[in-house]
Design a protein that fits this description.
CATH architecture: Roll
Number of strands: 7
Helix content: 25-40%
Shape: globular
Number of helices: 8
Distance between the termini: 31 Å
Largest sheet: 7 strands, antiparallel
Structural class: alpha+beta
Length: 215
């Protein structure tokens, strides 16, 4: 089923992304959305027009492209502690195994090959990469897969306004905890070399008005 409302040019672009790998390559080539004018939650149409995206915007575009491949438009929220950002990835399955497409500006929290048996197993693959500049590991929970077709009446693929209702649903949907409090207190910080690697970025903001990206 194609995402409703996309025009011929938008469909042409997304149909060229005929595999999850091609979707990831397309997202990697998109500049990071540093939200210089304030917070955004752009639809796939706006991402294609403005040629930039942060993690949630990238996940929604990936979900729209996956849908054109005959796959469900699934995304998953990775929930961090209050002093870090959540991260959102698009999910897909190949031969019964789960993989993920991820838009990020950093050397970590990226693409996942479809080798994971369950969404939990996939989410856990991000745990050791998810840390702050002081080494504290911050990933705490993950959502059940969310099918964005639930927002079809909302016109999520082509909306001109920001999709705050989609973002809110991702944060409010049931999440499964990764750690209990005792485990959280005993976590070993990331090593200095890991911290240095985590600071590697693909895109840098232009101008003083650009703000730090959402992962």
């Amino acid at each position: 089923m194609k995402p409703s409302g996309l025009n011929a040019e938008e469909l042409r672009v997304l149909r060229r992304l005929s595999s999850p790998r091609k979707v990831q390559d397309f997202l990697d080539a998109l500049p990071m959305n540093f939200e210089p004018g304030g917070d955004t939650c752009m639809s796939p149409r706006r991402v294609l027009r403005e040629r930039r995206a942060h993690c949630l915007e990238g996940a929604m575009l990936a979900a729209a492209a996956l849908r054109l491949q005959g796959r469900p438009p699934l995304v998953m929220d990775l929930e961090a502690t209050d002093d870090d950002h959540d991260h959102v990835v698009a999910l897909f399955k190949e031969r019964g195994r789960w993989g993920a497409i991820s838009k990020t500006n950093h050397a970590v929290l990226r693409w996942r090959e479809p080798v994971y048996r369950t969404p939990r197993e996939l989410a856990m693959s991000y745990f050791h990469e998810y840390f702050l500049d002081d080494g504290r590991k911050t990933l705490r929970a993950f959502s059940a897969p969310v099918d964005l077709s639930r927002f079809d009446r909302r016109g999520w693929t082509v909306a001109e306004e920001d999709l705050w209702d989609v973002e809110r649903h991702l944060y409010e949907v049931r999440h499964s905890s990764i750690l209990d409090p005792g485990q959280a207190r005993r976590l070993r910080p990331a090593d200095p070399v890991e911290i240095r690697a985590g600071k590697v970025v693909e895109w840098r903001p232009r101008g003083r008005s650009a703000r730090k990206s959402k992962l």
